[in-house]
Amino acid sequence: MSDQVPTRPAKIDGRRLRSERTKQLIIEAYLELAHELSPRVPTAAEIAGRAGYSVRSVFERFPDIRALQVAAVDYALAQVAALAPPRGVEGDRRSRIESQTLTRAQTCERWLPLWRSLIVNQGDSIELKDRVKKSRDWTMQRLELMYQPELATLSALERRQMLVALEAITDVESWARMREFFGLSFDEARLAWTQVIDRLLPRGSIHAASEDAAAGEGAASLKHPCRSPTE
Fold first, then answer.
1. 203 in the same domain as 189
2. Which residues span the domain enclosing 122?
3. Which SS3 state, helix, strand or coil, does residue 6 take?
4. Are residues 123 and 58 part of one domain?
5. If you count Cβ atoms within 10 Å of the first and of the last residue's Cβ in the chain, which end, N or C, has fewer?
6. How high is the pLDDT of residue 223?
7. CB hemisphere CA count around 145 (13 angstroms)
8. Looking at residue 216, what is its pLDDT?
């Protein structure tokens, strides 16, 4: 027989779980209202009403609305990272551009109202300014990952300049201008990004060279359909 005393399972703190659940629902209520009311920040009463709790419950979990804003932005950034993983990193130039612009367009379409509210209402908040920087840094890292073959052909300075230009082109407000001011559809706006990025990126990579060669061979075969491959 074993002399070991059976260990009891860890006791679940039901009160703490309920409190965390309430906190999450308040964050989600804030995000819903921020989306609907952007760029205006929803009031505590509006947030409480949407979440189904009292105003007191809101301030029991967040000292002020600014703290709630920060928590909501952190949640949104985590959602962006989880729902928009890099896809097609090993693909050819065209497929990588298609993949990156689609993912970026979907992200901008979903989070534009919250981003606009964040930019307008960040004020002198160090925490919110830090979230803006983190978001832009994340975009830069994604661009660098997706276009590594093309960027590798540039000097350090040129690479930095290219990344800054790509980030500016695919900024959330750039998407908003195309969609709202110029009236482009989702597909039209995404196509605009795709064409501009394709023209902007250098074609000195091995991948691009092989693609250009393949395209040239395809064009030649169309001009001379009866030519033997061995000619």
1. yes
2. 87-222
3. coil
4. no
5. N
6. 44
7. 13
8. 47
Structure tokens at 165: 């230009």
Three-state secondary structure call for residue 14: helix
| Rounded Cα–Cα distance for residues 163 and 52 (Å) | 44
Q: Which two tokens stand for residue 223?
A: 């001009």
Helix residue ranges, H only, the chain: 14-37, 44-51, 55-61, 65-83, 93-121, 126-146, 148-151, 156-169, 172-176, 186-200, 206-223
Closest CA to 102 of 85, 117, 118, 119: 85
pTM value > 0.90: no
Residues 74, 94: one domain?
A: no
| Residue 207: inside a domain | yes
In 3D space, the residue among 98, 116, 99 whose CA is nearest the CA of residue 175 turns out to be 116
DSSP 228: -
- Last residue within a domain, chosen from 32, 59, 83: 83
Q: What percent of the chain has pLDDT over 90?
A: 68
Which of 89-103, 128-142, 172-186, 211-225 bottoms out in mean pLDDT, i.e. has the lowest? 211-225
Examine the domain organization and report whether 48 and 97 are in the same domain: no
C-alpha 23/C-alpha 31 separation (Å) is: 13
Q: What angle do CA 56, 61, 66 make, to 5 degrees?
A: 95
